[in-house]
Amino acid sequence: MLLVQTAARQECLSGLCELLRTVAEISGSIGCVLWELAPYTQGGEPRDGRLYVLAQWFHGCNTSATYNLGLDSVTGSAILEQKAMNVGQISTDHRVRDQHPFLKHTHINSFCSAPLTFLDGRKGALNLYRATPFTDAELERLVQMAWLVPELYGNIRDKISFRQIRKINGIMQRVDMTSSPPTHDHVCAALNAIVESVADTFQSMETSLYLRNTQDNPAVFDLTATSLKNHPAKKQYRASSEEGLTGWILSTGTKVRLFDFNHFERDRELIQQQYPGITWKDSLEIQALARARLGLSVADELPPLSFMGCPIMTGHKVLGVIRCAARAREPHYYSERELALLEIIAEQIGHFWVTWLNRREIENENESWRLLVMGMSLMNNFVQKEIKQPNPDVQKMFESALRSIRDAISGADAIDVRLADESSSELRVAAACGRFWEQGSPREIADRRNVRVPLAEPSTTIGARVMKSGVVETLDVRPGEYAGEIFPGMSKVISTPVSTEEGIVGVLGVQSGEGFGRHTPLITELLAQQLGLYHSLASTIRRRYRAELEQLETFEDLQHQLKTPIQQAHARMQMVLQSESLDERLRLDLQKVRGLCGKVRRVAMSLKLFSDLSKKRCIEANRSRAASDGIVKMLIEAASDNSLMVDAKRQIRFSVERESFRMLNTTQVFLDLDLLEQAVNNLLDNAGKYSYANTLVKIYGGVTGKGKFHISVSNKGIPIRPKEAAKLAERGWRGEDAQATGDGTGIGLWIVDHIMRAHDGQLLVIPSNPEGMTEFKLMFPVQEKAIQ
Amino acid sequence: MKILIVEDNSIQLEWMNDELARRFPSAKIQECDTEYGFRAAFEKIAADPPDVVLMDVMLNWTHPAEDMEPRPPAIAEAGIWRAGIRCQKMLRGDPRTKDIPVLLYTSLAESSLTAELKEMSPAAYLPKDSNFEPLVREIQSTLKKK
Lengths: 788, 146
What we know:
The complex is a heterodimer.
Chain A: H1 2-9, H2 15-26, E1 31-37, E2 50-58, E3 68-70, H3 74-81, E4 85-87, H4 101-105, E5 110-117, E6 123-130, H5 136-174, H6 184-202, E7 204-211, E8 220-226, E9 236-238, H7 244-252, E10 256-258, H8 264-274, H9 284-294, E11 307-314, E12 317-327, H10 336-386, H11 394-405, E13 414-420, E14 426-433, H12 435-438, H13 442-449, E15 453-454, H14 462-469, E16 473-476, E17 492-500, E18 503-512, H15 520-577, H16 584-614, E19 624-625, H17 628-645, E20 653-656, E21 670-671, H18 673-690, E22 696-703, E23 708-716, H19 722-725, H20 738-741, H21 748-758, E24 762-766, E25 773-781, H22 784-787
Parallel strand pairs in A: 20-22
Antiparallel strand pairs in A: 1-2, 1-6, 2-3, 4-5, 5-6, 7-8, 7-12, 8-9, 10-11, 11-12, 13-14, 13-18, 14-15, 16-17, 17-18, 19-21, 22-23, 23-25, 24-25
Helix pairs in contact in A: 1-2, 1-5, 2-5, 5-6, 5-10, 6-10, 10-11, 11-15, 15-16, 16-17, 17-18, 18-21
Chain B: E1 2-6, H1 10-23, E2 28-32, H2 35-47, E3 52-55, H3 73-78, H4 83-92, E4 102-106, H5 114-120, E5 124-127, H6 133-145
Parallel strand pairs in B: 1-2, 1-3, 3-4, 4-5
Helix pairs in contact in B: 2-4
């Protein structure tokens, strides 16, 4: 009853010592030791077995029992024979072969030993020590208590285990994973709290947690949390049996429990029977640390340094490890039950870590997509500007594209686009970004960019393979592989074909030292598609520009060929019309022919001007001083020709107000008469097309209040709305109503506008007034002195 | 004999009128110079059908006028490029006018009208030319077949 009450009061594993104290006190003993048989000797030869002190209590002295004992001892016999042993006089009992110092120092003369079986099936013994011999009745009571102690210890352990699991759940629940994922520091703080709690529960000198920071890079496990404060634990482990006990757990995904790793060399064979390939080197440094922690001198026997570690798994993949080493208080050994508890804790941590990694991955993915959309938008803005050029620069487009999108490709240390040269024998770098491409002097950067990747068979380069197959490749690269294409230290590569409708034109490569996000291949593929589109767009624009240039040159040539015969036809027609012997009918027909010739001449000139303007050449005005007579004569002829071009039934008349041009005799205006004729005729042509029947087209001139000379054409016809007025001079723009009533290309006023610019003047369009009158004004600058 | 000319260029129309009057002095010549004009006159044409129609292809919808009829949306979208084809379709769609021979007389190249020529099967396609003889011969041949 007393034992049960004692057990119920215990809140930690070292409560086992309190149980032993009660056992000792009940039996009037000065000491009690609970021995445990190392598990790897079970089924083996007895001589291979070893007894370890699990816990002990001695009254009034700080001396301890030896920590391990051979099976050839009395206690060993009690276990092997499953029979209680009673040693009345230690000094004379022949069964006691090796009298340990602690027996002498404490004046212990007698002891008895009762075998027991722990709850996990392991064997052990409960020993009592005192100065006087034990009676048979006392031995019998010890046997009963030996049966009870493992049960009560089990109860203490279960209670602590339950509390531990609840505590860890509480810590994890306080980390909110429902909205945006917590930061790495926040999660590590929670894991540190868990690790400290585990260290406290297991009474470990060290508990450490190593985890992979991503789900895709199995190579490295970082120290994520540790209970060690003053002496830092190793920062990183790799999954390799060469990296000690922890490395072995990581490489095999198997849990480990060692009774005393401080004597690994001594027990190597036995340990490796259970854990094949596991290695450890006894460490003086760890011994010194343990002594310091336990307050022991070098002369004192070091208690066993027990070890247990569990892999943290996600499916079949090892995500990390949690390990506990060297107990600071008794019981000195991690039991199977405690290893089982550590396994549950490892599962909890694994679930927690994977949930966080997934949340972070989703968040990163969302961020990447957001950056991708922003990057695409920036890319498209740049490309939009670039494709307005007649000869868009693909290299500049690609450079801008990579710059805009680099942040969206998580994990990328180097990004490049390589395009096949014209002979398709090599890939050359068209654009690149990332720290590896950008480091070094300008010369070094240029040299790096000049490296070509051969495309010849057999395809020994990644670029050549992707160019040939058209399939995305995601590779794990070993050091030294693909030296011409991959930077040193890179371990992952994604290589994606850049395709246009004409085939594969190049390869987009992304390199990483640490690994990519899960979505990086998809983003890379999207980027490659976009680059293919830009390439295609730029090629089409270049082709069209070349074709347009050829077309414009043809226009120019035709105009040149037309010019002289048309001018001559026009001139000779003038001569014939000046003859007095023509009858009226013939004169009218000839006038029409002259009008048609004039129209052809203007169309030819429009072709020339259109060609010049399309090639971004400015119109050149050969200006000379305008004389009133010359201007009026040209205007009358233009009015006459255009009136003959209009359907006579519509009764549209053209009139020139001669008087309004008289001021040219006193005003100096300089203009190119040929270009003016072209501009005026374009305006009159429009007036003829868009005027209502039975209306008058008026041509007049003058000087405005602001000192500008103007030639104006006013008519009443299809109205021009104020919002249309500004657009009329744009190339190809035609008013809605105008399209219903007349054919045209929408370049007439565009040319007039440029003719006026060549004169430092302006085409002014005055929208229809309430009476329906519309005005087009050609505004020219006037020499100021002459105005006075 | 009655000849209908559908043509929007006034100088071309005047010349064709003069030439036809000279070659076929007894012919009654009618004119339409816009698509809207043709549609407005259609009932009159159907009631007293011409013997042959000389049809231009590109026609303005109407003349500028304060009260001008706006283009129906479908025609506004299609533009002036196939106005003559639409007029011919009207002729083919009415039992009173479906058999009137239509000669497409246009500046558009035959190659750019391949689909329309197949679909509409006009009596003939003739490119506009300063030589009026081919058109005269085609009119004579068409009238003989009637």
